[in-house]
Amino acid sequence: MTDTLQEFTLVDLLPRSDSQSWEEAACKGDPNHEAWFPYPSQDFAYAREVCADCPIRRQCGEFAANTGQSGVWGGHEYDRGRMIRR
Ligand code: SF4
Predict the structure, then answer these.
(1) Ligand 1 within 6 A of CB of 10
(2) Is residue 64 lining ligand 1, measured as CB closer than 6 Å?
(3) Residue-wise pLDDT tens digits, 4-55
(4) Where are the domains of the chain?
(5) What is this structure's pTM?
(6) What residue's CA is closest to ligand 1, atom 2?
(7) GO cellular component terms (predicted)?
């Protein structure tokens, strides 16, 4: 990943063609980029707390599962679309 890409959050990286309401995402503009892609031994309490107040939480998790995403989505961690931590 380049320095330029690290300026973006998850929702910034989503395809523009996707119809989800990503503008409402609670993580939009979040500066803690690494918190959304934790190491296996790393807690993701920070990301989980941000997701807890997100109005599109359910849709976000469904998107991650349906499109094979990795990282924290909808308050859970995914690995290529499979939920690995709740
Ligand atoms: S549920 Fe979490 S990861 Fe998904 S858009 Fe909302 S804040 Fe971002």
Answers:
(1) yes
(2) no
(3) 445 556 666 565 555 668 889 999 999 998 999 999 899 999 999 999 999 9
(4) 5-14+31-85
(5) 0.80
(6) 51
(7) cytoplasm
